[in-house]
C-alpha cells in the first residue's frame, strides 16, 4: 500500500450544517443516561436532496490515492466488485438532467453524467451500454439509470463507480452526500440487514442483538451456557429508528446497556436496571448529538461510567461521557484537532492500563488516524496518521491489545487483503503496515479480531462470494495463516462477521444473510475446526 497524500482541510465547526450544537439539560435515564429529544430543524429535512445509488454495505474502494497503478488517484467510490452484482440496478442520486450518456468507453464502459444544477454533478460508470438513458432526459431521485455491466478497462470485475463533482471538481462522495443531502446519510444503510452484535453475559450465556428493517432492535440469548438460542424478542420500545449494528456493554452488576445509531443521526440508548431485567425505552443520548454519521464505539470504566465516541457528518469525531455511573450524559464535544483529512465509519476506542484513552478511525482518504488523551480524563491530542505505507485502507479499524500489552490495529485494504500494524513496545511507535495472511484479494467489509486465551490473534472477514474466512497466528506474535473458509454448508452471508470467545474458550462467529436471518458457527473444541452454519433464535 502507498501513502496517500491528497490533503483535505476540514471546516473548523463540528458540522457543516450546524449540528451537534450544545443543548439544554437532559432528563436522567438509569444505566443509560440520555436527554430529551432534540429539535430537528430545517437541516433535518424529511426528504434528502441526494441518496446513494447503491447499498453502502457493498462499498469496495473509497475515494483518494491508492496503490493501484492503472488509476492511483481514485476520484469516486466503487460499489460491489462481485460477479453477483452483474445486472444490479443503479439508481439516480437526485433530480436532474442527463448531460452525457456514453455507450462504450475504454476506461468506463457505459457511463452517465447527471447535472443537478448549482454546479453539482453525479457520474455513474461501468454500466450496461444497452440500457443507458438519453442525453437531455430529465431523471428523478431513485429512478433506475441502468444496470451494472461486465468488467471493462481497468476494472477487475462488475461494479459501479460513483463520482460526485462540485463546480467541476471531484470531491469525496461521502463528503458530498453529507454536505448536500439535507439529512444525515448513515454509514450503514437501513436497506441492508445489519450485522448482529454478540456478548457473553455474566451468567455465561451468549446474547445476540440485531436491528430490524422497521428500525427496531431484537435480541436472543442461549437458554443455558452452550445451549440453543431462545426465540427473538423486541428490545426496548418498538420502532425507535435504530440502524446499523448496536454496541452492547456489560456493567459490573451484570446489567447490559446498548447504544445504536438512529436514522435521525443521533445515538439512542436502552439498558437493563439489573442483570436479566427488561430493557428500558430508547432515549436520545447526550445534548446536541444530531450530526452523527457512524455507529458508536463505547468504553466503560471500573466505576461503570460510560463514554461514547462517533464520527460526525462533518468528518470529525465527537464524544460524550457520563459524569458518574448511571447519570445523564452531558454535551457532545469534538475530540482532537484535524488537519488534512476527514474521519468516517465506526471508530475504535481502547483504554491503556494507565487510564489514557486512544481513538482510531478510518479517514476518507483511505488511511488510519489516531488521537490520544494527554492524560487520563484530559483532552485529546491532534489526530495523526498511524503507521507508514498505510494508503489504501478500506475498512473501519479493528484494534486489540496483545498478550504483551502492545496495541495492534487491523483493516481490510482496497485490494481485498488484510493488513495490520503493531507497536514496537507498549506505548511505542507503530511501524509499517504489512499484509497478513496470503494475498487473497477478495475480502470485503470490516474485519473482526479476537485475542485467544493462548495469546494468539485470530481474524475473520467476509469474502466477495459471501463466505466468512479466517486467519490466525500459530503462536503469539507469529505470522498469520492463509485465509480459509470457516464452517460447512455456509449460506451467502452479506454482513461483517462478529467473532467472540465463548466461556469454554472456543470461538463463535455470527453473520447475516440477505433476508436478515442471523447465522452462526462455532468450534467443536478449543482450536478445533468449525462445524456447520446454523440459524439462531
Task: Determine the mean pLDDT.
Answer: 82
Low-confidence stretches: 1-47, 182-192
Apparent shape:
globular
Helix proportion of residues, in percent? under 10%
CATH architecture of the domain at 396-537: 6 Propeller
Any overview of this molecule?
With 537 residues, the protein is an all-beta fold. Among the domains are: 56-180, Distorted Sandwich (Glucose Permease (Domain IIA)), CATH 2.70.70.10; 396-537, Neuraminidase, CATH 2.120.10.10. It is 1% helix and 35% strand. The protein contains one helix and 40 strands. The strands form ten sheets. Strands 1, 4, 6, 7, 8, 9, 11 and 12 form an eight-stranded antiparallel sheet that branches. Strand 34 (457-463) and strand 35 form a beta hairpin. The radius of gyration is 22 Å and the shape is globular. The two termini are 42 Å apart. Residues 1-47 and 182-192 have low confidence and may be disordered.
What distinguishing features does this structure have?
Neuraminidase, single chain, eight-stranded antiparallel β-sheet, mainly beta, globular, 537 residues, four-stranded antiparallel β-sheet, Glucose Permease (Domain IIA), 35% strand, disordered N terminus, 40 strands
Record the SSE blueprint.
Layout: E1 59-61, E2 64-65, E3 73-74, E4 77-79, E5 89-91, E6 96-102, E7 110-115, E8 120-127, E9 138-139, E10 144-147, E11 160-166, E12 169-171, H1 173-180, E13 197-200, E14 206-211, E15 217-221, E16 233-234, E17 242-250, E18 256-262, E19 267-271, E20 283-284, E21 297-300, E22 306-311, E23 317-321, E24 333-334, E25 343-351, E26 357-363, E27 368-372, E28 384-385, E29 398-401, E30 407-412, E31 418-422, E32 434-435, E33 443-451, E34 457-463, E35 468-472, E36 484-485, E37 498-501, E38 507-512, E39 518-522, E40 534-535
Antiparallel strand pairs: 1-4, 2-3, 4-11, 5-10, 6-7, 6-9, 7-8, 8-11, 11-12, 13-14, 14-15, 15-16, 17-18, 18-19, 19-20, 21-22, 22-23, 23-24, 25-26, 26-27, 27-28, 29-30, 30-31, 31-32, 33-34, 34-35, 35-36, 37-38, 38-39, 39-40
Amino acid at each position: 500500500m502507498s501513502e496517500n497524500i491528497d490533503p483535505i482541510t476540514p471546516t473548523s465547526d463540528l458540522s457543516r450544517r450546524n449540528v451537534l450544537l450544545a443543548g439544554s439539560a437532559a432528563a436522567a435515564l438509569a444505566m443509560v443516561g440520555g436527554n430529551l429529544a432534540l429539535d430537528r430543524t430545517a437541516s433535518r429535512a424529511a426528504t434528502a436532496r441526494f441518496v446513494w445509488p447503491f447499498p453502502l454495505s457493498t462499498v469496495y474502494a473509497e475515494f483518494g490515492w491508492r496503490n493501484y497503478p492503472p488509476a492511483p488517484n481514485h476520484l469516486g467510490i466503487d460499489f460491489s466488485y462481485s460477479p453477483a452484482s452483474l445486472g444490479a440496478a443503479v439508481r439516480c442520486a437526485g433530480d436532474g438532467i442527463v448531460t452525457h450518456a456514453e455507450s462504450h468507453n475504454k476506461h468506463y464502459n457505459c457511463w452517465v453524467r447527471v447535472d443537478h444544477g448549482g454546479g453539482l454533478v453525479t457520474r455513474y460508470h461501468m454500466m450496461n451500454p444497452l440500457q443507458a438513458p438519453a442525453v437531455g432526459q430529465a431523471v428523478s431521485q431513485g429512478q433506475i439509470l441502468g444496470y451494472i455491466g461486465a468488467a471493462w478497462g481497468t476494472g477487475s470485475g462488475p461494479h459501479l463507480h460513483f463520482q460526485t463533482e462540485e463546480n467541476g471538481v471531484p470531491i469525496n462522495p461521502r463528503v458530498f452526500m453529507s454536505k448536500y443531502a439535507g439529512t444525515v446519510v448513515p454509514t450503514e444503510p437501513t436497506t441492508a440487514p445489519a450485522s448482529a452484535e454478540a456478548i457473553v453475559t455474566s451468567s455465561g450465556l451468549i446474547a445476540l442483538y440485531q436491528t430490524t428493517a422497521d428500525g427496531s432492535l431484537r435480541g436472543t440469548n442461549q437458554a443455558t451456557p452452550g445451549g440453543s438460542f431462545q426465540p427473538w424478542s423486541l428490545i426496548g420500545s418498538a420502532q425507535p429508528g435504530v440502524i446499523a449494528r448496536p454496541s452492547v456493554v456489560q456493567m459490573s452488576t451484570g446489567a447490559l446497556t446498548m447504544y445504536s445509531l438512529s436514522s435521525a443521526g443521533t445515538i439512542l440508548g436502552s439498558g437493563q436496571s439489573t442483570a436479566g431485567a427488561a430493557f428500558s425505552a430508547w432515549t436520545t443520548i447526550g445534548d446536541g448529538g444530531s450530526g452523527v454519521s457512524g455507529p458508536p464505539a463505547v468504553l466503560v470504566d471500573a466505576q461503570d461510567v460510560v463514554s461514547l465516541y462517533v464520527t460526525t457528518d462533518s468528518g470529525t469525531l465527537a464524544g460524550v461521557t457520563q459524569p458518574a455511573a448511571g447519570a445523564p450524559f452531558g454535551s457532545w464535544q469534538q475530540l482532537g484537532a484535524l488537519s488534512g483529512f476527514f474521519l468516517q465509519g465506526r471508530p475504535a476506542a481502547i483504554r491503556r492500563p494507565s487510564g489514557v484513552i486512544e481513538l482510531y478511525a478510518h479517514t476518507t482518504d483511505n488511511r488510519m488516524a489516531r488521537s490520544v488523551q494527554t492524560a487520563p480524563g484530559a483532552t485529546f491530542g491532534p489526530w495523526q496518521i498511524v503507521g507508514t505505507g498505510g494508503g489504501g485502507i478500506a475498512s473501519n479499524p479493528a484494534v486489540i491489545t496483545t498478550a504483551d500489552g502492545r496495541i495492534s490495529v487491523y483493516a481490510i485494504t482496497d485490494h481485498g487483503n488484510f493488513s495490520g500494524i503493531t507497536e514496537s513496545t507498549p506505548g511505542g511507535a507503530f511501524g509499517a503496515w504489512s499484509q497478513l495472511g496470503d494475498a487473497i484479494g477478495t475480502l470485503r467489509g470490516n474485519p473482526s479480531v479476537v485475542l485467544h486465551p493462548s495469546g494468539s490473534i485470530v481474524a475473520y472477514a467476509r469474502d466477495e462470494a459471501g463466505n466468512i474466512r479466517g486467519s490466525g497466528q500459530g503462536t503469539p506474535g507469529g505470522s498469520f495463516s492463509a485465509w480459509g473458509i470457516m464452517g460447512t454448508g455456509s449460506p451467502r452471508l452479506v454482513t461483517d462477521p462478529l467473532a467472540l470467545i465463548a466461556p469454554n474458550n472456543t470461538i463463535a462467529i455470527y453473520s447475516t444473510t440477505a433476508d436478515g436471518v442471523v447465522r452462526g458457527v462455532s468450534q467443536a473444541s478449543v482450536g478445533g475446526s468449525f462445524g456447520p452454519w446454523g440459524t439462531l433464535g
